[in-house]
Design goal:
This protein has about 350 residues and is α/β, with parallel strands linked by helices. It contains 13 helices and 9 strands. Strand 2 and strand 3 form a beta hairpin.
């Protein structure tokens, strides 16, 4: 039965909270890991053609067999570069923002967020997404990702300043977040035009490790919803990922309009099922380092089966996935072990 449904059809049933003939499975973003399979860093990949970029992702996923492919993941901070900020690529891993771009007095002459689509790196990513959507988009979900406004605003304004102003100057924070929401959508809209089926908004700065549930509800959630409304208006699915322990705010996530909530390894899948089950789909929570990177393939497979059990995957609405982006050095055999554990779980039969 599982052979009769494509990956895209399986994800569609997942989002509809329907049981699927096999366990849905994906990596979360994994841009640096995917490119590393062909010996490319994130920086190097921006100097190949969009056709080559798309080819690397397509060929890697043909071997990995995940249900979602993520062109553009790992490049969130290009949005800051696109409005005149400075970023620095690491030897491996994602680039860093070197300094805030929304400095004192920024509102008098705000950076034009519409410029972001002209960044040469972003244009390569968009074109690669367009190519992949045409080549495999009928059968495999093609997506992309960006920071949600609270995290993106913190990078543009300075995270420490943002946190301080949550109490001292909340109106200034709201103005930053309004700007960040517009920047976020200006970055993502070309990907929607290119035909992606899903967009991930990642909001690590809105973690339960950093802000309270009340602060999340006031400052992060409305802006996820603001961008999410634009995403869903284009017929694109929305996944939200928040790092850290989000158990005390999971009940708020359906209000964002997201179809899938991705949880970190700090969140119990049993709790995620209890809180989100029947409302929206959820994903996670394999530890990307302690399990996916450092375990043997047999250990990854065992942890994957345990996650499916904890999430009560037979009820539908659960996507097996690492609890965050995985390091570039994760062995390919470990990713295959994760995927094979999902593919082996068919019709409620889960190997011990």
């Amino acid at each position: 039965m599982s052979e009769t449904l494509t990956s895209k059809e399986i994800i569609r049933k997942l989002i509809a909270l329907e049981p699927t003939p096999r366990q849905p499975v994906s990596l979360l973003s994994a841009g640096a890991w995917t490119l590393n399979q062909s010996g490319l860093t994130l920086e190097q990949a921006l100097h190949v053609t969009p056709e080559r970029f798309a080819q690397v992702l397509e060929e890697t996923n043909a071997r990995a067999e995940c249900d979602i492919v993520w062109p553009g993941s790992g490049y969130h901070n290009l949005a800051i570069r696109g409005i005149g900020g400075q970023i620095k690529f690491r030897v491996k891993g994602t680039p860093d923002v070197m300094a805030p771009v929304l400095t004192d007095g920024w509102e008098k002459n705000p950076p034009d967020f519409r410029r972001v689509k002209d960044d040469p790196g972003i244009r390569i990513l968009v074109e690669a997404a367009r190519i992949l959507s045409k080549r495999i988009g009928d059968t495999t979900v093609v997506g992309t990702s960006q920071w949600a406004p609270f995290t993106l605003g913190g990078l543009a304004y300075g995270v420490e300043k943002l946190m301080r102003d949550l109490r001292k100057n909340p109106d200034a924070v709201r103005r930053v977040l309004d700007y960040a929401a517009d920047l976020c959508w200006a970055y993502l809209e070309p990907f929607a035009d290119a035909g992606v089926s899903i967009i991930s908004l990642a909001d690590p700065t809105a973690s339960g490790d950093l802000i309270s549930p009340a602060q999340f509800e006031e400052f992060a959630l409305p802006y996820i919803k603001k961008v999410g409304d634009r995403i869903r208006a284009r017929g694109v699915w929305l996944l939200v990922h928040i790092c850290g322990n989000t158990t005390n705010r999971l009940h708020l996530l359906p209000a964002t309009g997201a179809q899938i909530m991705s949880v970190d390894y700090k969140v119990s899948l049993t709790n995620a099922r209890r809180i989100l089950g029947g409302k929206i789909a959820f994903a996670g929570n394999l530890n990307p380092v302690a399990v996916v990177q450092k375990e043997t393939p047999e250990g990854v497979a065992a942890a994957s089966r345990e996650a499916i059990r904890d999430a009560d995957g037979d009820r539908g609405g659960y996507l097996l996935m690492p609890g965050c982006d995985i390091p570039p050095s994760v062995p390919f055999a470990n990713v295959r072990a994760l995927v094979e554990a999902a593919h082996a779980h068919t019709l409620g039969v889960l190997p011990s």
